[in-house]
Automatic annotation (TrEMBL):
Pfam families: LRR_R13L1-DRL21. PANTHER family: LEUCINE-RICH REPEAT DOMAIN, L DOMAIN-CONTAINING PROTEIN-RELATED, LEUCINE-RICH REPEAT-CONTAINING PROTEIN 57. This is CC-NBS-LRR resistance protein. Transmembrane segments: none annotated. It comes from the Eukaryota. Residues 1-113 form the R13L1/DRL21-like LRR repeat region domain.
Length: 161
């Protein structure tokens, strides 16, 4: 896991952005359900921001992340070759990045992300002119206890399940 990473400076030393042959990355944070103050949440966000992978990455799993938002590199879709993405127990994040614009994404699984109440247009990136989720074949949501609404079901030309 990421228990040995102390802060964003430590995380930056991993230099993941320059590891162009890295195709699969599993990030498991130590985050449990315990109370966390704002400085710990902020530190967690900066650690994940510093762990930006190379754009050649094909598979990404993020688990037990206790930041309150996803890193810029995930929100800005800097992973054009990503084929598989799993988010599990990212409990404090309230909004999903615009995954609809990841051109190669075939598998997306989002589970136990309790901060998500509404999945809206930002998930699809409605500002874009290209078709949302143009490669997605499998979409999974489960254990989303606070999820209330899914809007704008557009795109998904290849969705199978």
């Amino acid at each position: 896991g990421l228990g040995n990473v102390i802060d964003h400076v430590d995380a930056a030393k991993a230099n993941l952005k320059d590891k162009k042959y890295l195709e699969e990355l599993h990030m498991v944070f130590d985050g449990g359900r315990e109370e966390m103050d704002d400085s710990i949440v902020e530190s967690t966000v900066s650690v994940l921001e510093a762990l930006e992978p190379n754009s050649n990455l094909k598979k990404l799993n993020i688990e037990n992340y206790n930041g309150d938002n996803f890193p810029n590199w995930l929100r800005d879709c800097h992973l054009p070759n990503l084929v598989s993405l799993k988010l599990k127990r990212c409990r404090l994040c309230s909004q999903l990045p615009p995954f609809g614009q990841l051109p190669c994404l075939k598998y997306l699984s989002i589970s136990h992300c309790d901060g998500i109440k509404i999945i809206g247009e930002e998930f699809y990136d409605s500002n874009s002119t290209s078709l949302s989720f143009r490669s997605l074949e499998v979409l999974e949501f489960y254990g989303m206890d606070n999820w209330e609404e899914l809007s704008c079901l557009e795109g998904f030309p290849l969705l199978k399940e």
